Amino acid sequence: MSQTLTSRVGVSLRNLLPGAKFFGANDILAKGCCARPEHVLPGEIFMAICDDDQDGHDHVEDAIRRGAAAVVSEKPLPVSVPVCVVSDSREAYGQLCHALADQPSDRIKVIGVTGTNGKTTTCLLIKAILQKAGAKVGSLTSLGFDNGYDEQSWSHPTPNPAIMADLLSRMQYNGCTHAVIEASSEGLVKQHLAGIQLDVAAFTNIRQNHIELHGSARNYYRAKKKLLKYLRDTGVAIFNGDDSNCTRLMNQSEVPSLSIAVHGVGEITATVVERHKSEQTFLLTAGSQTMPVCTRMIGDHHVYNCLVAAAVCLVYGVDMKTVVRGLESVETLPGRMQRIECGQSFGVFVDQAHTHDGLAVALKTLRRVTHGRLICVLGAHESSDKINRPLLGRVAERGSDVSLITLSGSYGQMQNEVVHDIVDGFARPAKAHVVANRKEAIRYALSQAEIGDTVLITGQTTERLVSDRVEQSDPRDCDVARELLYEMVQDEDHVMPEAKVIAFPR
Questions:
Q1: What are 199-252's pLDDT values in tens digits?
Q2: CA 496 to CA 56: how far, in whole Å?
Q3: What is the DSSP letter of 434?
Q4: Three-class DSSP category at 303
Q5: If residue 73 lies in a helix (H) or strand (E), which one and from where to where?
Q6: What DSSP string describes 164-221?
Q7: pLDDT of residue 2
Q8: In the chain, fewer beta carbons within 10 Å around the N or the C end?
Q9: What are phi and psi of 19, to 5 degrees?
């Protein structure tokens, strides 16, 4: 997808960025912009942005040689083209991208969802409810994007402003009335939502996560808080009243807000009535109305996701019956507590849980509906947060009866460093079983399961899914599990080849 945006009419930077200072011209008319010097086309504005691996100010001359007509930077530059100096070039980039796209968020209702866990599921629940209400909804999540015409996979949950503006513009052109956007902490820090006006900003939860990326829990909290800056004056924020950081943020913010809760006090609440491996039922209460919701996706975390989605749609005036119909219509999502049923006598679930918090939630959910043993296939990618790896091991040891450690992103050999980091979290390393091949780890876990047991397969984070399509080199865990389960069903004695298991000594 293009990293540049163009407009036939052009945008006055003096009008768009009133606080900017101009050198070499009284104003700059932008008909296109680009933040990558190698992608600059003649006549475009080059946006000098400091990225993770490079400073755009160091590449201004290269952009000018390629035909840049002007530069937007954070400092005056001795160059041959006009320069617009701003305090934050990332913010200016987002504003210009959306201005060049004719401000699509002014013509389509946009919902932003952030949080440590549950962002993707909540986005798709919101989408399902609004569709039941008759709206045409575009979406952008870590599973992919839907622009109202087609669906495609995407490698990042929150793309840069050029792509974001282009996608919103396409949604509006294709007749979408609403757009649901998943906002990651990294995307918020890099201001990828700059230029967007949100009608609703929703927070699922704010836990301690991505510490290695953000430097501290405080910085991570600040990153999530940035979603509120994109809320329009008439917008509403949704907060999880049972989450301490969300409550803190709600008390600090000065915007109209609604809170949801399961255990505490909130405007929209839920009470779990019953829960099984295949479904759960809870009572959804909003004001004087209470209605039962039966969903095939289980766990308290899913109840919270449903509450946030319900709150967002109630803000838009959707009636409770339609809200319930929308929530119940989402029966499964790839890698989100996905139940695998192939006629086996035990439960099998696939969950992307690649953080200790997500793993703890998954294990706690399944423990409540498991009568026998809980067997966990634990994965960690080589690019994962090193601080998180020992915590994964600690959670797996405490929450499961059998823990099998393998990599999340490869079905070949694993990197010893990742494995040892996870094992460091075990109080009793002898309980940590290592299987060198991911498929064999799943095979061994399934072979050990008996009636009443549950197998949880976690940690695969490299897949990007849209419906049933996948763009990745490794097979999906759910496909591998189905293949192996069908082998078991066909085998009358349920005998499977033994995987080579390495048990770490005490």
A1: 999 999 998 766 656 668 888 888 899 999 999 999 999 999 999 999 999 999
A2: 56
A3: E
A4: helix
A5: strand 70-73
A6: HHHHHHHHHHTT-SEEEEE--HHHHHTTTTTT--EEEEEE----S--HHHHSSHHHHH
A7: 53
A8: C
A9: -90, 0
